[in-house]
């Protein structure tokens, strides 16, 4: 007897069985063997008004819609009507996991896939989802599915190779142009990856001694004033702490122009500024020109803080701020006392005795 | 934690503590306590907690993110998988093939 006939017979037994314990045993077997919900939808011997067939239609329609990008909230509501004890319940949960997968909500995929009853046929997909979420190589049995439903990122791979080539050849302009194109393409869907690419470009430019000012303009154009300044400040933090300090001040100033500021964010900015100022004071020979630049930005920053969060600057007098020689201390004082716990040791060496920052941008 | 220490870290403290990025102080502390009890003297767990213990810590960590990568290939590998719509057929066929092989 073929697998299809055998399964059909078991379905008939399941529908006709009146002994609850036996019915449950048949359901368990069927649940492990049912290869898709369409199998029930296509069984002519099950009347259209039978609950099992209605549920099979709901699940197969929803699964088809999900895998074609046509899923609607209406279908989702219908899926939720399928009770936990139904033979179709594992398929209903799988459909929700697949929907979350296409929506990119991997936490929801994990939650749904963990709810698929063990022993049911859809439970097999748990290993597929686990590998996808962990970004691991798919097990052999899922390679075909993976190659059909996962983008192999060939286009991005090729663009990143171009970036690498431009960097190796020391062609800063081409590096930035290529990065701009890639970032524009992916920043909406993958803002984090776009930022990583920008930071990597900054690193390459700094490695080949190209000042990051041009990259800073690109960062502003791509990510806006606050994020552009922040990414520049972050990118220069390992190479040019003095330059980075100025960018952190500019970023906070830009952030404070926003109407919806948060005090915790402001404190976090000030904590970073304090740490960087401390390093700059220790590691660099600070010129009067640089200190004056810091003072100019600090006066403007403190004025904004006095307006928005007066309690944060009440200990700072106008007289203190007007002296370039005390400006580093003021920047440290703004953030308040440091936490008491011991920080782990540095992994990346800080550049020693760097030349003072150049000012063409400021 | 000091800024220059944070930028050299590549850990995801939320993932390490097994919590969502929306978790508040209490939930973070509970996750840290539970994990600390299970894995005594685990420095990475302590570090993850210190990075995001307070709202200000979390804001600082986010301002110092994303962490830098030294190779564009790694950027590609860190990119989340991109699903493509293919219809239900390949899902059903893959499962049937797996069931047959078993």
Give the helices and strands, then pairings.
The complex is a heterodimer of chains A (362) and B (102).
Chain A lengths: L2 H14 L3 H14 L4 H4 L9 H17 L5 H7 L9 H15 L2 H10 L9 H9 L9 H7 L4 H15 L3 H15 L4 H17 L5 H24 L4 H16 L6 H21 L4 H21 L9 H4 L5 H8 L28
Helix pairs in contact in A: 1-2, 4-5, 4-6, 6-7, 7-8, 10-11, 11-12, 12-13, 13-14, 14-15, 14-16, 15-18
Chain B lengths: L2 H4 L6 H5 L7 H14 L4 H10 L2 H9 L8 H7 L10 H13 L1
In short:
The complex is a heterodimer of chains A (362) and B (102). With 362 residues, chain A is mostly helical. Chain A contains 18 helices and no strands.
Features of the shown structure:
heterodimer; A: 362 residues; mainly alpha; 2 domains; 18 helices; 0% strand; B: 102 residues; Helix Hairpins; 61% helix
Compute the separation of the termini of chain A in Å: 82 Å
Rg of chain B: 19 Å
Summarize the biggest pleated sheet of chain A. none
How do the helices and strands follow one another from N- to C-terminus of chain B?
Answer: HHHHHHH
Determine the fraction of residues in helical runs of chain A and give it as a percent range: 55-70%
CATH architecture of chain B: Orthogonal Bundle
- Shape type of chain A: elongated
Total discrete domains of chain B: 1
Largest interface: A-B, 71 and 54 residues
Shape of chain B: extended
What does the main sheet of chain B amount to?
Answer: none
Distance between the termini of chain B: 52 Å
Strand content of chain B: under 5%
Please identify the oligomeric state: heterodimer
Counting helices, strands and paired strands, the structural category of chain B is: mainly alpha
């Amino acid at each position: 007897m073929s697998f299809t006939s055998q399964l059909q017979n078991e379905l008939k037994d399941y529908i006709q069985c009146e002994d609850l314990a036996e019915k449950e045993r048949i359901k368990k077997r069927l649940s492990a063997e049912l290869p898709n919900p369409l199998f029930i939808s296509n069984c002519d011997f099950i009347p259209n008004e039978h609950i099992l067939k209605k549920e099979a239609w709901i699940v197969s329609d929803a699964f088809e819609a999900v895998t074609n990008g046509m899923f609607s909230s209406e279908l989702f509501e219908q899926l939720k009507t399928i009770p936990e004890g139904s033979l179709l319940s594992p398929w209903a949960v799988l459909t929700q996991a697949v929907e979350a997968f296409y929506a990119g909500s991997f936490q929801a995929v994990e939650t749904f896939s963990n709810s698929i009853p063990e022993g049911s046929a859809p439970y097999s997909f748990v290993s597929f989802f686990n590998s996808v979420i962990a970004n691991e190589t798919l097990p052999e049995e899922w390679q075909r599915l993976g190659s059909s439903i996962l983008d192999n990122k060939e286009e991005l791979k090729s663009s990143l190779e171009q970036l690498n080539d431009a960097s190796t050849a020391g062609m800063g302009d081409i590096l930035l142009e290529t990065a701009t194109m890639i970032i524009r393409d992916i920043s909406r869907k993958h803002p984090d990856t776009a930022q990583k690419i920008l930071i990597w470009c900054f690193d390459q430019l700094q490695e080949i001694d190209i000042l990051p000012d041009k990259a800073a303009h690109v960062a502003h154009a791509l990510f806006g004033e606050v994020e552009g300044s922040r990414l520049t400040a972050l990118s220069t933090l390992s190479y040019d702490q003095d330059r980075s300090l100025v960018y952190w001040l500019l970023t906070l100033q830009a952030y404070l122009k926003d109407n919806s500021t948060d005090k915790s964010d402001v404190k976090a900015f000030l904590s970073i500024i304090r740490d960087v100022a401390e390093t700059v004071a220790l590691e660099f020979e600070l010129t009067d020109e640089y200190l004056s630049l810091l003072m100019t930005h600090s006066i403007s920053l403190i004025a904004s803080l006095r307006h928005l969060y007066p309690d944060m600057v009440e200990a700072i007098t106008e007289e203190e701020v007007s002296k370039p020689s005390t400006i580093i201390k003021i920047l440290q004082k703004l953030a308040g006392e440091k936490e008491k716990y011991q920080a782990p040791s540095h992994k990346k060496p800080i550049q020693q005795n760097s030349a003072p920052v150049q000012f063409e941008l400021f | 934690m000091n800024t220059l220490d944070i930028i050299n870290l590549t850990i995801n403290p939320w993932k390490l503590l097994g919590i969502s990025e929306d978790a508040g102080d209490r939930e973070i502390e509970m996750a840290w306590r539970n994990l600390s009890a299970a894995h005594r003297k685990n420095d990475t767990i302590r570090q993850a907690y210190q990075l995001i213990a307070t709202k200000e810590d979390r804001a600082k960590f986010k301002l110092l993110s994303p962490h830098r990568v030294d190779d564009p290939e790694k950027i590609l590998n860190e990119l989340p998988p991109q699903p493509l719509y293919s219809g239900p057929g390949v899902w059903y066929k893959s499962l049937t093939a797996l069931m047959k092989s078993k």
